[in-house]
Amino acid sequence: MPVIPVNTPSAKYDVTIASGLLRTLHPRLAKLNPGKPFRPFIVTSPNIWALWSKHFLASFKEPPTVLFHPAGERHKRMSSVEALAQQLATAGADRDSLLLAFGGGVIGDITGFLAAIYMRGIRYVQIPTTLLAQVDSSIGGKTGVNLTAGKNLIGSFYHPQAVLADTDLLRTLPPAELRAGLQESIKAGIIYDAKLFRFMEQNAAAILNTKKNADTKALTKVVAASVRVKADVVSKDEKESGLRMILNFGHTIGHAIEAATNYQQLLHGEAVAWGSIAALNVAIARKTIKPKEAERITKLILRYGPLPTFKATAEKLVALTSRDKKNRSGIRAFILPTAIGKVEIVRNVTEPELLAATNHMLTLMRQKR
Amino acid sequence: MPVIPVNTPSAKYDVTIASGLLRTLHPRLAKLNPGKPFRPFIVTSPNIWALWSKHFLASFKEPPTVLFHPAGERHKRMSSVEALAQQLATAGADRDSLLLAFGGGVIGDITGFLAAIYMRGIRYVQIPTTLLAQVDSSIGGKTGVNLTAGKNLIGSFYHPQAVLADTDLLRTLPPAELRAGLQESIKAGIIYDAKLFRFMEQNAAAILNTKKNADTKALTKVVAASVRVKADVVSKDEKESGLRMILNFGHTIGHAIEAATNYQQLLHGEAVAWGSIAALNVAIARKTIKPKEAERITKLILRYGPLPTFKATAEKLVALTSRDKKNRSGIRAFILPTAIGKVEIVRNVTEPELLAATNHMLTLMRQKR
């Protein structure tokens, strides 16, 4: 059972990846809080709860209070956090309460943020149900919500007590969500782990097999390797003052695509996949990466598709990047791949360069349509 | 010029108390951020800005962006924070932005919280304009907003880079606000500083003199002593796990009074003053304080009145205390004075005791009407 430590200046906790974790939840929570009383509150989406509540509650003597929050990026708003906080208060939640984020990235981000600000901070545990949440968003303490002006503009760095990733949950995931999550694993490979990249090249069929009784060994290996990349990077640079920025590879244009399509047309991983191709195009134009390696990257991203198409001009997408949090007083930090498993952070990417790279990505998309 | 350090595990900063600070603001901000670029954004209320913008802007070469937020407890809500964040984003605020909280307690609390969560945390400076904000709410890093379910249920511990308290600002304060702020100074005396208490007994006339050209020496002395109490307590116990709780003296019933009157009838300091009398009544009934000392406390609180009356039954007020943040899994922590300058934290105050004490307070209020 892979147990991967996250170790930052402000928090120390483990990510546990295994089948069957859900059924042993309560003793695990008790072990995380020895001698400290806790009253659990579950934040989840109606869909997830319908599928998995029986497993979730199996180890609880008294059923905890369940708060429902709809899935979907458009519900990641301040008003939702306020509504959940109001429900917590009405149910008598105090500083001894423990929130359990049981869902995908949106549930995790919003529950983490709720835990960060309810009574100025209470404990929480991440129990991610999607691949994307298991390999990426549940780890590292970034929590928050969107503004009309942009994604994740409001939030906190606030770490969970633990991340419990039950790989059984991936069995009920829609295939498109599985593939979108795997795009973040590809990203982990591109920026940090050439071995993971190669494994995903060589085992695509096994990893993508979503038949009911398919062997999930290859998939679990990908999850663990991806978590290791994220945990390692976050442990070295918690607050994103340097290294952690590399995790944003593909996210500049990726976020712009999500904004341009109102967060409703593409899954996050799909938008990041297109964004990665755009970022790669900048590297290709600058000749900072060998053409053969660039080709392998594009090929792997498309292999884990199909990626949905969308309608937006390069001009609009580039305009939408200007409010990206990676800007510091107008200087745009950009993550460029230099080889498979290696990237550099550059600050001199110009608007014409970004426009050209985005246009190339859109051309590729139109060819695939 | 009194400069009082706050020194907690998570932050180190100074509270500076002096006349004329406003006019030298920009060089002071530059000194706080050597070599770090900052783009200032002011959050203030229209009233304060109309009175003091000229002084405020005197040291700025380029006028900073000003965001307005109405004064008053009922505007301390998530929706206001979201609206301010949206304005920041639209104005292009990024991680190099510096928020300046220029106003009373509500402006300070909301701006601090906005700074805590905008892009997961940016810098801010407190420039409190009311006595209450100067002696209490601007210090210690408690930021937040209210829910319908209760006051300050949402928030963060997030410290400013500095607190700059210009005593000139107190000259334009409505007399009732000055008196309400002085109630927090009386509280500081009761819980921690018998010397301050005595000074306020002996110099009431000079402290309360609000004539235009009145000597503010006595008032400045009270401000500095009150800040020292707050800074000392907060430095010893940042997160309110023990000692810091004593600052909540009078706040259990005080918060209930504010809630019962919809946060519109009484100033915070006035509600706390009545709450202090109620808390004192518990101590009198338990005989944990000498009758003569209890009498001196009541007398001083009323000397800095008149305190406005309000309509609420003891039953209603006690019922409203049950959601107080000081509850830990149902155990009510209560601050009881044992002598002037000394309190103890007790956890066994019963509901009948609290009811009787609150009824005594209400009887006193009716006698004064």
TrEMBL record, chains A, B:
Per the entry, what this protein does is: Catalyzes the conversion of 3-deoxy-D-arabino-heptulosonate 7-phosphate (DAHP) to dehydroquinate (DHQ).
Major localization listed first in the record, in broad terms = cytoplasm
Reaction catalysed by this chain? Answer: 7-phospho-2-dehydro-3-deoxy-D-arabino-heptonate = 3-dehydroquinate + phosphate
Give the similarity note.
Answer: Belongs to the sugar phosphate cyclases superfamily. Dehydroquinate synthase family.
One Pfam family, short name please?
A: DHQ_synthase
Give the organism, scientific name: Tunturiibacter psychrotolerans
One of this protein's GO BP terms?
A: chorismate biosynthetic process
Residues that bind Zn(2+): E184, H251, H268
What domain of life does the native source organism fall in? Bacteria
What cofactor does this one take?
Answer: Zn(2+); NAD(+); Co(2+)
Domain 3-dehydroquinate synthase C-terminal, chain residue ranges per copy: 181-327
* Database matches in InterPro entries: Dehydroquinate_synthase, DHQ_synth_AroB, DHQS/DOIS_N, DHQS_C
Name the HAMAP family on file.
Answer: DHQ_synthase (MF_00110)
Q: Where are the transmembrane segments?
A: none
Q: Give the EC number(s) listed in the UniProt record.
A: 4.2.3.4
Which ranges carry the 3-dehydroquinate synthase N-terminal domain? 70-179
Q: What is this protein called?
A: 3-dehydroquinate synthase
Subcellular compartments: Cytoplasm
Instruction: Describe how the cofactor binds.
Output: Binds 1 divalent metal cation per subunit. Can use either Co(2+) or Zn(2+).
Q: Which UniProt keywords apply?
A: Amino-acid biosynthesis, Aromatic amino acid biosynthesis, Cobalt, Cytoplasm, Lyase, Metal-binding, NAD, Nucleotide-binding, Zinc
Q: Which SUPFAM superfamilies match?
A: Dehydroquinate synthase-like (SSF56796)
Q: Which gene encodes it?
A: aroB
Instruction: Give one GO molecular function term.
Output: metal ion binding
State the pathway, as annotated in the record: Metabolic intermediate biosynthesis; chorismate biosynthesis; chorismate from D-erythrose 4-phosphate and phosphoenolpyruvate: step 2/7
Against NCBIfam families, the record matches this protein to: aroB (TIGR01357)
What is any one of the record's Gene Ontology cellular component terms?
Answer: cytoplasm
Q: Where does NAD(+) bind?
A: G105, V106, I107, G108, D109, T129, T130, K142, K151
